[in-house]
Design brief:
There is one protein chain. With 403 residues, the protein is an alpha/beta fold. The protein folds into two domains: 131 residues, Nucleotidyltransferase, domain 5 (2-Layer Sandwich), CATH 3.30.420; 202 residues, Rossmann fold (3-Layer(aba) Sandwich), CATH 3.40.50. Helices cover 36% and strands 19% of the residues. The strands form two sheets. A six-stranded mixed beta sheet has the order 8-7-9-6-10-11, with helices on both faces. The chain has a five-stranded mixed beta sheet with strand order 3-2-1-4-5, sandwiched between helices. GO terms for molecular function: nucleic acid binding; phosphatase activity; RNA-DNA hybrid ribonuclease activity.
C-alpha cells in the first residue's frame, strides 16, 4: 500500500572502526508511529560511517518501495546528516560513492528532510544495527527488541527544537527565497507582466583564459584573461551596452578574469564602479584545479563518478554544487532586494551561472551537465516581485567572432 509521507530512522556501526559492521533502518508512519518496514544487514568489515550511509540507503530504498513522496530522514550521525545537506564536504573517498547513491535515491522523492536526533531517540534502528554487527562478528544475535530494552518504541521520534530544525533543513535545492516565492513553485501565469517592474539580470561569463582553451578546471586559481579573452571582454561590453543602456550596478566575482571583463563592461556603460561579490566566485574544484577532465578521470575515477552523479558531492578538497547553489541563492536574494525593478550586470563563472539558470528554469540537476556556456556568453533573465521569472536568452554569443 502506497503512503504519502514516511519517517526514516537509520543507524549503522562497527565494532573496531573498521570492524564487523552492520546497519539498521526503520520506516514509520509519521502520524501513528506504525512500523511500515525494517531493514538490517551485516556488511562484513567496514567503518562506522560506511555502515551509517548503508543504513540511510536501505531506509530510502524501503521508502521508495512503499511509494512514499515525502521523507523525513532522522539519524544520530551528524556527519551523514550534514554531508547529505551539503554543509560538510565529503572528504573520505570511500564515502563519496555511498553519498552519490543516497543522493540518487533522494531525487526519487518530492521532498526529503534530514535531521539529527540523539541516539536514545533512535533506539529501534540502533538495535537492528547492533544485531547485524553481532552477525558480522560471528556472535549470537540479540533480538532487536531485546537489545532496545523491550518492545521497539512505537511513537515517532520527537521533532527537533526550532533552532536545530532550522539548522538541519535540506538546502540542497529549491530553497525558499526571502520574498516567500520560488521560481520552481511560483504560480504559473500567461498574464503579461509590466517589464518595468522586473529586475533584469544580465549574466556574463568571463572572457577566455589559457586554461579555457586547454579545457582545464579553473576554480579558485586566479587565471588572467588571455589576449583573446581581453578582445572578447571588449566585444561583450559593446553588446551589453546595446542591451541595457541604463544599468544600476556591475557586480563581479573577485577573480581577475571576471573583474577584468566587468571593468570593460563598466567602462562601456559610463565608467560604473565594479563591485566584487564573493558569492559569485567559481566552484572550488580543490585538487582538480588546473587539471583537464582526462587527467581527473585518470587520477580520481571514483571521485569523478560520484561528483557527476550528485550535486552534493565535492571534488577532493573542494566544494559541492549544492554549496555553490546555496551562495548563489543568497546572492540572488540580495540582488532582488537591493535593485528592485532595475538592471544589474553580473560577471561570473560557469558553475554559478548554470545554477542561477537551473533555478530560474525550474530545471533539474541534469541541466548542469547538459548546458554549455561559452566564454563571454551572455544570458538574460527577468525577476518579478511576485516570484515570476522569465529567461530571455541563454549563452548569447552573437557579439563574438565565429571560430
Amino acid at each position: 500500500m502506497a503512503v504519502r509521507a514516511v519517517v526514516i530512522e537509520a543507524d549503522g556501526g562497527s565494532r573496531g572502526n573498521p570492524g564487523p559492521a552492520g546497519y539498521g533502518a526503520v520506516v514509520r508512519d509519521p502520524s501513528t508511529g506504525e512500523v511500515l518496514a525494517e531493514r538490517a544487514e551485516s556488511i562484513g568489515t567496514a567503518t562506522n560511517n560506511v555502515a551509517e550511509y548503508r543504513g540511510l540507503i536501505a531506509g530510502l530504498e524501503a521508502a521508495a518501495e512503499l511509494g512514499a513522496a515525502e521523507v523525513d530522514a532522522r539519524m544520530d550521525s551528524k556527519l551523514v546528516v550534514e554531508q547529505m545537506c551539503g554543509r560538510w564536504q565529503i572528504k573520505h573517498p570511500g564515502l563519496r560513492p555511498l553519498a552519490a547513491r543516497a543522493a540518487a535515491l533522494v531525487d526519487r522523492f518530492e521532498s526529503v528532510r534530514f535531521s539529527w536526533i540523539p541516539r536514545e531517540r533512535n533506539r529501534h534502528a540502533d538495535a537492528l544495527a547492533n544485531a547485524a554487527m553481532d552477525t558480522a562478528a560471528g556472535r549470537p544475535s540479540r533480538s532487536a527488541a531485546g537489545s532496545a530494552g523491550g518492545e521497539p518504541p512505537r511513537a515517532v521520534a520527537g521533532a527537533d527544537s526550532p533552532g536545530r530544525a532550522q539548522a538541519r533543513e535540506v538546502a540542497a535545492r529549491a530553497a525558499t527565497r526571502s520574498t516567500g516565492t520560488d521560481p520552481a513553485t511560483a504560480k504559473a501565469s500567461w498574464e503579461p507582466r509590466p517589464s518595468f517592474t522586473a529586475t533584469r539580470l544580465i549574466l556574463v561569463r568571463h572572457g577566455e583564459t589559457e586554461w579555457t582553451v586547454q579545457h582545464r578546471y579553473a576554480g579558485r586559481a586566479d587565471v588572467p584573461l588571455s589576449e583573446s579573452g581581453q578582445a572578447q571582454a571588449r566585444a561583450t561590453a559593446t553588446r551589453v551596452a546595446a542591451l541595457a543602456p541604463s544599468v544600476a550596478a556591475v557586480l563581479s566575482s573577485p577573480l581577475s578574469r571576471c573583474t577584468a571583463t566587468a571593468e570593460a563592461i563598466a567602462a562601456a556603460l559610463g565608467d560604473l564602479p565594479v563591485r566584487p561579490q564573493d558569492d559569485w566566485i567559481e566552484c572550488d574544484f580543490g585538487d582538480w584545479d588546473g587539471h583537464t577532465f582526462a587527467e581527473v578521470r585518470d587520477r580520481w575515477p571514483g571521485e569523478l563518478d560520484a561528483w557527476l552523479a550528485s550535486t552534493r558531492v565535492a571534488p577532493p578538497g573542494g566544494e559541492s554544487f549544492t554549496e555553490v547553489g546555496q551562495r548563489v541563492d543568497r546572492a540572488m536574494v540580495a540582488l532582488r532586494e537591493a535593485y528592485p525593478g532595475e538592471t544589474v550586470v553580473v560577471v561570473s563563472h560557469v558553475s554559478p551561472i548554470k545554477l542561477a539558470l537551473r533555478d530560474a528554469l525550474a530545471a533539474g540537476d541534469a541541466l548542469l551537465h547538459r548546458l554549455y556556456l561559452d566564454a563571454a556568453g551572455i544570458s538574460v533573465l527577468d525577476m518579478w516581485p511576485d516570484g515570476g521569472v522569465a529567461v530571455r536568452s541563454v549563452n548569447d554569443t552573437a557579439h563574438l567572432p565565429v571560430r
